[in-house]
Each structure stands twice: as C-alpha cells, then as structure tokens.
Amino acid sequence: MGARLSSNNNKRSRNELFEVSQNEACKRQKTTSTSFWDENPLLIPSLPDEISFQILARLPRIWHFNAKLVSRKWKTALMSAELYKLRKELGTTEEWLYILTKSDGDKLIWYAFDPVSQIWQRLPLMPNVAAGDGTRRGLSGLRLWNMVGSSIIADAIRGWLGRKNALDQIAFCGSAIGAVDGCLYVLGGFCRALAVNTVWRYDPIVNAWSEVTPMSTGRAYCKTGVLNQKLYVVGGVTRGRGGLAPLQSAEVFDPSSDTWSEVPSMPFSKAQVLPTAFLADLLKPIATGMTPYRGKLYVPQSLYCWPFFVDVGGEVYDPETNSWVEMPAGMGDGWPARQAGTKLSVTVDGELYALDPSSSLDSARIRVYDHEDDSWKIIEGDVPVHDLTDSESPYLLAGFLGKLHVITKDVNNNISVMKVDRLNRVDPNPSTSSATLSESTQRLSDIFAVPSDNIWQVVASRSAGSAELVSCQILDI
C-alpha cells in the first residue's frame, strides 16, 4: 500500500514514514527479474507450491508489500483470490481499520491501521470520479474534487435548500461510504448541479481503485448498510426543480455479481400524515442513518426545513419479506442524534450502540438499545470527545476486533482510536424496567465492578493536523 506511517511520528525506526510509488516498485522488480527467485520454478525452493501457498497465506498483511518484491511468482500468489480464500479457511484473516480524512483544501486521504504491528498506511488517492457535467469522461486530465461527504448534512447543504442555482457552484460532494466483501466503496454524490450514480471500489489485494457498476439512481448523502454480504443504499437527495429533493428509493449491490437490484422504497409513513398541505410541502422527509441489527436494516428518519430537524422515528427493512415496517417507538424516539439530525450508530457483537453528545462540550455518553423493553440505556463512563461543537465530524464509531471503538481527535489534533473492553449499563428508569430484583442487583454489581474512569483505552493515534474525520470502515481479509 503506497505509503506507510508509524504510530509514533517522532521516532525513526522500522515504522518510519517512507514512500514507495507503484512505478518505483515496478523498477525494483525489473532489476531483480533475473534473480534466483525468478529463475526458480517453485515459489519456495525445495518445497511443493501447495506447501508454499500455505506459508504465504499465514504471512501478516503488513509484510505483503515487501513480499511482492521477492519475485513475480510471489507477487502473483499474494494478489490472487485463492490465497485470500485460503486465509479465511485457515482463520488467518486480519481486521484493519480504515479512516477517511479531509484536509483544509478538501483533499481526501484514506489511512489504514494494522492493530498487530501498530503501523498506519496511506492508501492511494481516489481517482477522478466525475467530469464537470456530471458524466464520466475517463481518468486523464480530470481533477478529483475531494468533498466526499461524511454522514453530516449540516455544512454541505447549508443555504442550498430551496435554492435552484447554489448547486451549480459546488464541484463534488455528498458521497456515501460503505464496505462489503473486503473492499471499500464510494457511492454517488453531487457533481456540479447533478446527483451522480458512479461507484468506486478500493480493493486492498491489488491496492487500487476501480469503477464498478453504477447505481440505478443518482443520489447524494444516501445511507449505506451491509446485510448478507450485500451493500444496501437508501434515501439521500437529488436536485429537483425547487432545490434539493429527498429520495425514498433504495437499492442493493451484490459484489459477487457486480449488479444492482431494486429494493422497495421507504414509505416515509410519518410524512404522509402531516395535518396540512403547507407542512407537507415545508417539511421534507429524509433518512438520517442506517444500521444493520438483528438481521434487518434500521433507518431513522427526520423531517427537515433547514435549519430545523424533527425526529419522526424511522422504518425497518426486512430482507426476508422484502418490505418495510415502522420502527419501534422507543428506538426511534430515543436514538441519539449528531449534528443536523444525523444518527450515527454501530452494531458490535449483536448489540446496537450510539453515542450521545448531549452530556457536555468535552465528553459524551454511549447508549445501547434494549430490544426487549424498546429503550436506550446509558453506558457508564464518559467518552472523552474533544470540541464537539467545532468539528463537522467530531467522532466516528466502529465495531473493531469485537469491541466498540470511538475515533476522535484529541486536544493535540491527533486522531485517537479508543476502545472499551467492558460496557456496563446504567438503567435511568429502574422502576419502569421489567427486570427482577435479582437481575437489578446483578446490574448494580456490574456497574460498580469497574471504575468508570478507566474503561476507555487509547489503542492508536497519529497526527492529523487540521484534517477532519469523515468516515471509518472495517475490512477483514
């Protein structure tokens, strides 16, 4: 992977920063093309290739870049789909954390973090995704307008709502981010005045971006989620005659066949029962999040008229029945919201978590959804999130290595990756709970078992300067 960065930027060691371009890698391979390794017909001398393949499948991913320089045969083997299938069979796959940042000049940079070696790597820059008129014109001579949106709507659509010409001045923004089948995806967005349907995929095996089958509908600021190894896309906005128009449509991408299929549109049932035509025209329904949970997709929704957002619960998609139903009332009403009504959440080990930033300016609380009594419970201990008000995207949530992680920026402008090993629920309304006395006693015992000021641990950090957090994804390959 292009550049490698250490977890400590001030020490020049095996983890020190260095750049190796693909052209340089090719030159190095050419100079060693007549080496012993290339002349030998076997991957490893004196070993059958079947055994050598088993050895390579156990090699940590962090060393794949250097291993590809050994010979052409090693490079071919390490970039083959068969090797990664074998890694799954052997249980040697590795989870890496991928973080997308945006600099002051709207330049997007992806970073990958290996938790075993504690090494950060920088991914290749995303290629040009759209031309000035919203259609693809090839890769040469086009500049990538790197304003891929985080899930935040606030700054990007400020002043756009109800204006016909404002989007003409925007180069590119509002893409959604997703991950499925070991690859990262960047979907849609606005290019100048048009909502595009382009989809770009990053494959870590070949360390490159490529364009895949586009969505059937051009959309920006849509929400993504993964179920059954398929990538679902719902909602978002497009440009209508009066400004931005919300989308109810949904579709699903199957990476095994590189095809998109239609999904029934969200009913937006709460938006259909507004008391007057004036309110129906004024308040626009929009999907503010999407999370896979218990085999279904949960989509919280809001009615907006900038700068006001009104929570109206949400809807749930069941892939087995291929239909939408209304979200449980307690889940929708209590779902913690980030800026501009956006609701960020993550499922870890079967539990649905969300971060509630409303407690104070320099800390937040984690909430977990209890599906049995349809309520959100507070998790003990504050999350040290710095400057919630100044950043467009002050924090991200991830389910990484089976643990809940919060990614944020600390007081020194470093990206800080924090994990919690044990989460204890605090029932804010014990009298309304259906738990027995013994169960309540056990909960109280669990609460006081671990000091609340020690539950969050910083497991990785790196300098970010003024760059903003945009999104994070997990790949297990």
TrEMBL record:
Pfam families (alphabetical): F-box-like (PF12937), Kelch_1 (PF01344)
CDD domains for this protein: F-box_AtAFR-like
Source organism: Handroanthus impetiginosus
PANTHER family listed in its UniProt record: KELCH REPEAT SUPERFAMILY PROTEIN, OS02G0202900 PROTEIN
F-box domain mapped to chain residues: 41-87
Keyword Transferase applies: no
The keyword Repeat belongs to this UniProt entry's keyword annotation: yes
Keywords: Kelch repeat, Repeat
Protein name in the entry: F-box domain-containing protein
Coiled-coil ranges from the UniProt annotation: none
